[in-house]
Amino acid sequence: xxxxxxxxxxxxxxxxxxxxxxxxxxxxxxxxxxxxxxxxxxxxxxxxxxxxxxxxxxxxxxxxxxxxxxxxxxxxxxxxxxxxxxxxxxxxxx
Length: 94
Hints:
This protein is mainly alpha-helical.
């Protein structure tokens, strides 16, 4: 199983590239909800989901600071961070 950091990078990049896709929030939320631990097969705990979403947020904020990234304006970063909040609401308690 990939690490949370690897997953966060993958999901953040997917969100950045597909930020105009109206389904990106539900796609990432569903991916997170389907994650299970390799050894036990258990779903992620709410705490694990929080950790993953925090890492996604950090990846997005870091991407906004890089010159070559697709995020051009502060509005884009704000919209992406709002998407992370929506994903959190969808995945919380499930």
